[in-house]
Amino acid sequence: MAVEIVYRSSRDPEQLFMDKAEADRHDKMLELAETLGEVLQQAVPELGEKLAEEVSIYMARHRDLFAKAFKSNPDVLSSLAEDNAEA
Amino acid sequence: MAVEIVYRSSRDPEQLFMDKAEADRHDKMLELAETLGEVLQQAVPELGEKLAEEVSIYMARHRDLFAKAFKSNPDVLSSLAEDNAEA
Fold it and tell me: Is the distance from CB of A42 to CB of B84 less than 8 angstroms?
């Protein structure tokens, strides 16, 4: 037995990480998802909290692809569409 | 009376533009919204077509801000949240 360091995001205290960089990534993903969720729910109130959160977490998990799609190239999202179809 | 040139996106034939660059921007916005809508609806089927489209058009209209938010800085979206609150 020994004491060990684990890391977590205060936004999601149940999820523990052995690796600080992973905890950081998780925290940043949740931060983006939170902000997205608020903006989308305000813009489209019919979404409701749950759907706004689901959509936001999905996009935040794939933020690099969405960044590219918004910046210039929507086609990069086709790789996601294929993943979804397989899932 | 005279014949004049107007421009439109084939994705939205009813909307006519006097300026080709504006028609281009509108077409690119709709292209992004269409791709986003498909991906989001696949990822979160409960969204349904109408909500997926509304969310996607909203984000596509503000694509520059969302590009920045996804790339690095979610805080840029706070200016949108304020606009929504005023609207």
Answer: yes
